[in-house]
Amino acid sequence: MVSIKLMAMLGLLAGLLDASTQPLDGVWRSQGWGYVFQIQGTSWQAFEVTSTTCVVGYTAKRQPGETAGREATFRTREGEVFFIEADADDRHKRVVRPTELTSLAMERLDKLPAVCAPPTANTPLGNFDVFARTFAEHYISFDLRKVDWERAVAAQRTRITSATTPAELFDILSGLIRPLADIHTGLEAPKLKRVFDAPLRAGTDRVVRGDLNRFEKAGRAELAAVTNRAYLSGRVRSFCRGQWQYGVTEDHIGYLRILGFGDYSRHGRFEGDLRALHRALDVILGDRALRGLVIDVRLSFGGDDRLGLAIAGRLTTHDYMAYAIQGRSDGVEPSRYSQPQRITVRPGKQPVFPGSVVELTGPITMSAAETFTQALMGRTPPVTRIGESTQGVFCDPLFRHLPNGWTFALPNAVYRGPDGQAFDVRGIPPDLVVPVFADEDVAAGRDPGMEAALRALTRK
Q1: Following DSSP, what letter does each residue of 247-316 receive, concatenated?
Q2: Beta sheet of 254-258, edge-to-edge order
Q3: In 56, 149, 230, 275, which residue has its Cα 20 to 30 A from 252's Cα atom?
Q4: Backbone phi, then psi, for 172, in 5-degree steps?
Q5: Which CA distances in Å does 105 have to 31, 310, 332?
Q6: Bond from prior residue into 64 cis (ω within 30 degrees of 0)
Q7: 183 and 177 in contact (C-beta within 8 Å)?
Q8: CA distance 315 to 346
């Protein structure tokens, strides 16, 4: 009898010890971003959740060992590593991913939401509802893009039956988001071998002429050649695997054309890209005779926001706020957002260039090229923007899954400046409006934007 009691006590003690070493076990809900996480021992299971739907998401395994300041380390099947850190109290934690600018706040729940028990079924209507509710609860720009989402969804939902084919469903879903004209939205159906890439905002595809792939392969080079021939002296140098092109004028004003914010290194990782970026800037900014700098992002398609921050850091001698990021946090009230996470530009490695800078922007200045532009807005002395308003897409897409295995994307967060202002859809306006690559200017071999930039820098 004593032996049985002792064994019971030892079992209870073991259970308490195990609980103390696994304080994360349970269910957690993210603030914004629509995730629920279930942690059991070494296993991590994510769910993509709305108020009425639930899809099983990615999995991860807890890694052995401890790191100061971190409560746990997890690794996904794809090899991505993320950490859990303490927050306000035991019911609140943060998910920190080294590849992202912001962390994800999460709070403990008593159990999985009812919509996840079981998850949404893989039926035509189930897939439609996941897609429609995810946009309804997370998309940030319905009003700005003048789209009545609920009305559009109601009209299309009546077309869904148990006999709806995958091809028909793809057409319905892509048709729902086509009017948004938001290039950070999209839909991919691998088994159908179909992809929907959203068009540019209406009125902004003049330079591209409707075909981004053709423009990337040939059109950009044709327009770049106009500027190179008319305004640069000597050889135009290539850096960062061709993503940067650099030359100088006869008056020794530097001209840096940035075609993208990524793919700077053969290894394709951020660390390699960052090293390539700094090697290029060491050469460019190491020129002590540099009288001013023109940065041209009129032909840039975007990339990694962190690289834009690194460039901005080489153009300042002091810290300043780039922007603050907030995700939609309420499925009913679209004006409610998560707590802002402030992103700071910090002086980079030497040499830095604190002198006069002009930035050339245009309608296909998009994504990371826009967050870079926003990161320059707080610089002292101010950066003068010349050209046209940018595309108006800032947030990295939130990627989601349908029960049938398709993936889709949408922007769910805003980037606000120190004054709380965001530039989604309308884009960041220039200080001086100058037409970007108008047909008559290209035909005449002139670049009025570059001319205006050189005049501005000559006056300073």
Answers
A1: EE-TT--EEEEE--BS--STT-SHHHHHHHHHHHHHHHHT-TT---EEEE-TT---B-HHHHHHHHHTT-
A2: 233-239, 244-248, 254-258, 293-296, 357-361, 384-387, 432-433
A3: 275
A4: -65, -45
A5: 5, 25, 20
A6: no
A7: no
A8: 10
Alpha-carbon span 171 to 198, nearest angstrom: 13
Structure confidence at residue 278 (pLDDT): 97
Which helix (DSSP H) or strand (DSSP E) does residue 442 occupy? helix 439-444
Residues 6+ apart with CB under 8 A from 370: 302, 390, 391, 392, 393, 394, 423, 427, 428
Answer for the pair 375, 388: CB distance below 8 angstroms, yes or no: no
Q: Give the 3-state DSSP-derived string for 153-186, with helices as H, strands as E and coil as C.
A: HHHHHCCCCCCCCHHHHHHHHHHHHHHHCCCCCE
Q: CB of 48 within 8 A of CB of 55?
A: yes
CB 371 within 8 A of CB 414: no
End-to-end CA distance of the chain: 93
DSSP secondary structure code for residue 232 in this structure: -
pLDDT at 460: 66
Q: Please state, in angstroms and rounded to a whole number, the distance separating the CA atoms of residues 166 and 191.
A: 9
Give the pLDDT confidence score for residue 12 in this predicted structure. 41
Q: Are 241 and 275 in contact (CB under 8 A)?
A: no
pTM over 0.90: yes
* Residue entry with tokens 């296993």: 43
pLDDT along the chain (460 residues), means of 10: 42 40 87 96 97 98 90 95 94 95 96 96 98 98 97 97 98 98 97 95 87 86 96 96 97 97 90 96 95 97 95 97 95 90 94 96 97 98 98 96 98 96 97 97 97 91
DSSP class of 362: -
Name residues whose C-beta falls within 8 Å of residue 357's C-beta, 6 or more positions apart in sequence. 292, 293, 294, 295, 315, 376, 379, 383, 384
Residue with tokens 């989604």: 424
Residue keyed to tokens 């071998």: 193
**So what's the pLDDT on residue 140?**
97
Task: Supply 306's token pair.
Answer: 């962190």
> What size, in residues, is the chain?
460
Distance between CA atoms of residues 306 and 295, nearest Å: 17
Amino acid 8: pLDDT: 42
- Which token pair is 202? 């209406």
Which residues are CB-neighbours of 155 under 8 A, at least 6 positions away?
none
